[in-house]
Write a structure and sequence with these properties.
The chain has helices at 87-91, 103-113; strands at 14-20, 41-42, 46-60, 69-84, 118-127, 130-141, 155-162, 167-172. The protein is mainly beta. The protein has a single domain (14-172), classed as Factor Xa Inhibitor (Irregular). Strands 1, 2, 3, 4, 5, 6, 7 and 8 form an eight-stranded antiparallel sheet that branches. A hairpin with a 2-residue loop joins strand 5 and strand 6. The chain starts with 13 loop residues before the first strand and ends with a strand.
Amino acid sequence: MAYINPSPGTTSQIVLRLDKASASTITGDPATSILLGVNTITVPALQDVTVNNANDVFTWSQLDATAKKQVATTSTNSIDMNIVVDDAIFFGTDVDNDGTGTVAALGLMGLSRNKTKIAFGLKMRENASADRFIMGQGYITGLAPTISADAPVWVTPVTITVDGEFLVQTTDA
């Protein structure tokens, strides 16, 4: 069995990259698409990441059956995470941006505020011979930065609400 074991302090284990969505940002080999784009940003200081793939189910009862019937329907996909807030990544390099700049100029707050569709690539390093990628398109939501005396750095949840399906791929390292 091959476990994905991102030991704390190990670089390049889990990497989340963001870009503005387009047809070319999530197609083809993941090593040459979103994960290496020139206008992408890497989300630093990930505390945890949860990949959600929740299928909806239609349920009905029939008079000739003693149990309910169910059929899987569309799914709701998202990626939830908590991050330590990095000023440039959160606010962007151009705080007053009108929504037309790069993801680096907009930052997470600008992408959420302007409802900008993004492409994302989540790299999960498995072992020396292969990487796993979860890619797709969606929207940044759920920002709620907090700070307290017990946690004296800003932290925020971030949700990527996925528009459509996840694309799952692997590549040789």
